[in-house]
Amino acid sequence: MTIMEMFLGCMLTKRKDMVGKMTEQELHSLLEEMTLEEKVNQMQQLIGAFLTDEGVVTGPMQEMGLTEERAALAGSVLGTHGAAKLKKMQREFMEKHPHRIPLLFMLDVINGFRTIFPIPLGQGASFEPELSERCAAVAAKESAVSGVHVTFAPMVDLVRDARWGRVMESTGEDPYMNSLFSAAMVKGFQGEDIKEPYRVAACVKHFGGYGAPTAGRDYNTVELSEHTLREFYLPSYKAGIDAGAAMVMTAFNTLGGIPCSGNKWLMRDVLRGEMEFDGVLISDWAAIEEMIYHGYCADRKEAALRAAEAGVDIDMMTGIYSEHLCGLVREGKIPEKLVDEAAARILDLKNRLGLFENPYKDADEKAEAEIILCKEHRELAREAARKSFVLLKNEDALPLKKEGKTAYIGPYVDNRHMMGAWSIIGESKDVTTLQEAVGEYDGSGQAVFCAGSPMVGDDVKLEGFAGSEAQETPVQDAGRMLEEAVGMAKSADTVVMAIGEHYLQSGEASSQANIQVPEVQMELFRKICEVNENVVVVLFSGRPLDIREISEKAKAVLHVWMPGTEGARAIVDVLYGDYNPTGKLPMSFPYCVGQVPVHYNEYATGRPYMPGKNKDRFRSKYLDIPNAPLYPFGYGLSYTSFSVSPVMLDKECMTREENIQAEVKVKNTGARRGTETVQFYIHDVAASVVRPVKELKGFCKVTLEPGEEQTVRFTIDDSKLRFLTENGRQESEAGEFEAFVGTDSATVNCAKFQLV
Ligand code: BGC
Questions:
Q1: How many domains does the chain have?
Q2: Which of 102, 148, 441, 520 pairs with 483 at a CA distance of 20 to 30 A?
Q3: Is the shortest distance between the CB of 166 and ligand 1 below 6 Å?
Q4: Which domain range does residue 672 map to?
């Protein structure tokens, strides 16, 4: 038996239950029959335009070092969809391919395909991974009927720096929560078996540590100690892999000075070795070539060598593999075995998707017309949006009174761009505006509407996104708009201000040094507050913002992220009290940008600062701002109120074989039915490696009628106490612990226990 056979044998036996029509033996034989060129080009990914008559492709193809012959052997295509188009492309491609090997079609389906759900950060605020699983399943269904086989999702990068625009694609700052969402989304996309109808393969990204670019500037260097990487950043990738993710994507950044796409330690030792990932590893867009610009590889040939050595199976977009791998093998610089392994993994994925049986999988024009954006999908989008909203402040201003006059003011009043920057298939015409949604609502009383200001002023440069879409209203009109809005606000009982970031201000390549609502809108906000004291802010953004001024002056603040296709109707549900808010922050809202990165699960330092308790000078603190964020992780209000009793433990001491029950009584102390997310945090008081001041270990959503009380229990067992110790192992250490239970991460409600 050759090494290759052993490798394939082992890989295919593991997945016997999922193998499609091709048997193991047939796959072996296919691989053996393929020429080196054919195998190498399985590792090449193209954009759709290279294979259709849609665009002029000769130029870019040449630039990529791709000939037509090589393109005709490619393994996969990205960024295209549509059942009719993809079926045609597949048919024509396979007819010409010497072994009739089908293409894999891949696409970024992030927060939905055509039915757009809230951005992932908003989904994180739901504290309901099962909801994201349902959203991912719908997105999978819509993409699958449109001919897509693989989605480049979920993005599971842990994030702490609100300046980084891609925080919107993450579910936040907590490794436990991110892991739950990572697994849930993978399950939602893939189901039990990716070959089943309406399922697509998931791709966990961006491996690894992409969420920690220095200074929040996209693509920037990542500096993480191995300890921090392992403790906080790796768990969510691992969770997605354990949930069965078929693919993983590399990250653009360097880690320990080595670009991820050429980082053998990260890819071979950690990903393949420790995490036992045996699926397909794809580079991020042009990331193999970018190793040249990082200053890690002298030229494209060296980049091909390094990426192949690191075990990157697919080159997204650069043509580097196609151009150089055959030569590198023939020159003896890399063993053909590396190419065989990569090609085998890619063929295996095609087989698992059932493409050798049916290369079109679920692509179906009729189903596209029936399923995409259907009523059921829209309803889920509305449910997800409602559950993603976080009520940050409410001085009795919400829900809105049905009588009286309400002025809706702000650039988000009559705006359909609320799907987030990654909704590439979603169409703004499918989105209901807030004005339309209020109009539809029976009982919204007397309502008037105006924009009041452009979305952004001259200070925000949406470079590369320029054009009418980026700047919908000319800034010159600002004066006239402001005047109209002030007039409306004066005669209204309540003003609802729908303001926030432009949807392109967060997302890839959208880092911001200032994280405030654009100044032109803040001017509007200030003027409106001068003439009306009942201002409710509905805040749109893809990231936590510095909202001190808004939070101080407005009577209520409802944060709605980028809520998606049904976002506006969901906002109306919440504003008028048909839905009582339940969302909790998945990422701290900083006091100001100078505090960033700020996250709840920090270490104590040797000089912890406790406001009011220590007044000496030499403490870890700022002179001008508090250490605490404006709104902490896990924070979010309801239209009712809840009390949580002191934490009771059933015993104060446990061994590793035992467990302790931590119990609280949660009571609805307000006048409405409502849902509270009770959160459970652990603190290991002294350990061989310092521990975070709190770590989320569980949560539970309880829905209570007014006056109703319910007991909520969390089980503390050894698994909740383990961490990466000085021995480099996940294990617990005996000693004292604190168990916190509360309604956000700032809770001080705790009880102590010992692990003996
Ligand atoms: C992004 C990836 C994405 C890829 C393909 C890159 O720029 O970083 O997240 O999947 O493009 O569209």
A1: 2
A2: 441
A3: no
A4: 642-755
Residues labelled as active-site residues: 284
> How many other C-beta atoms are found inside a 10 Å radius of the C-beta of residue 701?
15
Ligand 1 centroid to 580 CA: how many Å? 36
Q: 665 has which bridge partners?
A: 711
Q: Distance of CA 702 to CAs 453, 577, 666, Å? A: 41, 19, 8
Global pTM reads 0.96
Do 652 and 544 share a structural domain?
no
Residue 646 lies inside a defined structural domain of this protein:
yes
- Residue 285: CB within 6 Å of ligand 1? yes
Beta carbon of 108 within 6 Å of any ligand 1 atom: yes
Which segments within 228-279 are labelled E, that is strand?
247-250, 254-255, 258-259
Give the residue among 151, 449, 187 at the shortest CA–CA distance from 282. Answer: 151
Asked, for residue 8, whether it belongs to a domain, the answer is no
Phi, psi of 488 (to 5 degrees): -65, -40
Q: Is the CB of 205 under 6 A from ligand 1?
A: yes
Q: What is the rounded CA–CA span in Å between residue 323 and residue 673?
A: 64
Nearest atom, ligand 1, residue 153 CA? 10
d(CA 133, CA 431): 22
Decide which of 527, 548, 577 is a domain's last residue.
577
**Average pLDDT by stretches of 10, the chain with 756 residues:** 45 44 85 97 88 58 80 94 96 96 98 98 98 98 98 98 98 98 98 98 98 98 97 98 98 97 98 98 98 98 98 95 97 97 97 97 98 98 98 97 93 97 94 97 88 90 60 72 97 97 95 96 98 98 98 98 98 98 98 98 96 88 97 98 98 98 98 98 98 98 98 98 96 98 98 98
Q: 617 Cβ partners below 8 Å, 6+ apart?
A: none
- Verify that 567 and 667 share a domain, yes or no: no
Residue 455 sits in the same domain as residue 529: yes
Pick the closest to residue 157 from 144, 169, 145 (CA basis). Answer: 169
